[in-house]
Sequence to fold (167 residues):
Amino acid sequence: MGLTLGVYYLLSSLSIGQLMSFDIHWIFYIFGIIIIKDKSFKLFFFFSIPFLSMFRGNIIAINHFQVFVEYFLVYYCFFFFLFINPKNDKKNNKIQFVVFILFLILSFFIRLLLHTISGIIWWGANNFATSILLNIRILMLDWIIVIPLTIITYPSLILFYKEQNKK
Fold:
């Protein structure tokens, strides 16, 4: 939780372009959801990070419901990762890795959809095409950095998880 929030607060203050910032904290959030062994703590981590992230000072908001959708609900796009539990057999590892990649891509597309809807409703993008193009431009940096880095580090993290659970 500390790494997730620390990276979130540190990098959210580094503005890139007009409204963009690095959202590399998603990696820690995704891996936290996956590797926490205790189900109750896994759920606590999953639900508490969005609440704690609301204390960031540079939230750009028009109204409270928009804050809920854009800064809170987008965390729950990663709901699918609650169901990934690292296993020890090699056959299952390959299937699990493919499922992980599919969940990752699906989660980012749901996040894009939420931001697109928010753009149509609150930010004055009059149609779906304008809003999706603007949000792709804004979220593309996250996709370019977070998705490949998460995929590359996933096997190492699972090995670490398995080694820790042997002891």
